[in-house]
Amino acid sequence: MCAPTASRTATAASWAPASAARSCRRRAWPPPSSWPAAALRCRRPPPAASPPTSRPVTRLPHERPHSPRDRRRSRSLRSDPAARTASAWLRPADAPPFQTPERSRLGPFAGPLLPRTATCGRTMDPVMKHPGYAVSRRTILSGSGALLAGAALWPRPLQAASAPYELVAGTGRQRLAFDGAERLARTWCYNGTVPGPLLRYRVGDRLDVAFTNRLPEPTSVHWHGLRPPNAMDGAAPLTQPPVAPGETMAYTFDLNDAGTFWYHTHFRSFNQQDRGLYGVLVVDEAEPPAVDRDLVLVLDDWVVDAAGRVSQTFGAIHEWAHAGRLGNVVTMNNADDIRLPVRAGERLRLRLVNVANAQVFALAFSGHETVVIAEDGEPVPPRRQSDVEPLVLAPGQRVDVILDATAAPGSEHAINGLTLTGEISFGRVVYAGEAAPEGRSGGPVVPLAPNARPTLDLEGARRIPLAMEGGAMGRMRGAVLGGTMMNMRELVSNGRVWALNGVAGDMAEPLVTLKGGETVIVEMTNDTAFPHAMHLHGMHFREVEREGRTVTDAPWRDTVLMGAGERVVIAFAGEGPGRWMFHCHMIEHMAGGMMTFVEVEEA
Fold first, then answer.
1. How are strands ordered across the β-sheet holding 412-419?
2. Domain range for residue 90?
3. What is the model's pTM?
4. Which of 302, 425, 505, 513 lies 20 to 30 Å (CA to CA) from residue 46?
5. Of 83, 99, 115, at which residue does a domain stop?
């Protein structure tokens, strides 16, 4: 029943389920065919396509046809080297042709596997309400609970100004439409919106933000991917005390890197970030690429209960010990079925940002080639990807792409996706109106100017091991916490289920201490059953080896995705002095002990 399929040319993600091969004979949840490695072994024709206008049957979490054992298996991940050099998971060689343009090209089975009738917000026309965020007809409304106009929902981007910009964290009510009914959900938000206001600058500007905490508990703001002075990094309590309720803190530093970044809470993040405390920060290049529109697309997931409410059950140890808090509703700009209007002939710059606590997204724009121009805010040589080569984003990662609108006016094209919990559809690209008479599509894609990065001395670098252990189905029997060796029962009672080098998030000693300008090589081994997205504050690194194979000319990144059982080697050089966090950006994993820090001393 299971046999290898022919390999193709596209590169697939390596986060395949550990149980994929042995699940071929029984339809577990989600179907193993929706995973990259599994499709290399399972050859099944897809079912007949549904009419383009039909909606899939909604299954709420308690209705999912799976056993707890199947669910554990489906979230258990490990590396599959074959998946990196094959694309049969996108469409098996022996599968029948796709019968409609709406059919997913991210797996041989049709239709999303997660509920798609859960929608957020009031009904809006499918048009762009803001030049930064792409707004759909379904949007989240935050603040006092009143309906907000599109212009208020997506505030004007912040430009450099003489007075500090006031950023306020507070509680709010979010209008959520689920299965045709509207309800109010409780959120925490910046300036009354989820995501927070789009902060936009030009490279060389100075960020000057007066942050006020109006939450019932302390918090902070981390500037993800930027390189501020250590005291401005926002990683409480390592780099600053958390901002207490009612207090204000000034964040001020120069923006020397252009790119797509984001800001979010960094104190009790497993709770605060998932409630909505995040926003996007864009630093424009001195000479931005010639595009017709520059849009931000925020990817997130939500845990919605059977009554259509956003679940408030944060901090469950089961989520911490497994893949993290994975939502049953996946959104792009707060819409589970976005309509992205374009005009034929346009050239768009799309800035994709994964703000989810733990979810990994792979997505592709049906009928459209994309050109990757930046990853994690760092320019890369333009790399063309077809509509069956997915863009993969781990939590915290960003990808900038150029998309040329080359299809016919009036047509619609699916935005297909794959997550750790199944196959989905984000929505559609909709060709509205007549063709753009002076659109920029079809021209050459000029590489972006690189940001200044240090020179790596790989020959003389120290090599530091980093062993990841713990979690469900792991082999860890104990770890150090508070200077004391504890067994697993004691660790769990203290909220710890993961460890790095045998230390469960103690934060007493650095992983490594290095001088400014000194290069270190960190050899990371994921000895767990789950993927991890390792994020380094204040610096960027380069991948130099993966699974024993040398990696050359890898891009500079601040977050790297590792599959279960995988070994990845990175190199970076010390930059700004101070203590810089290094942790898994599956937020529940960080909270459960998968965190350490790097100490940089003056050169």
1. 338-342, 422-431, 412-419, 361-365, 391-393
2. 1-99
3. 0.77
4. 302
5. 99
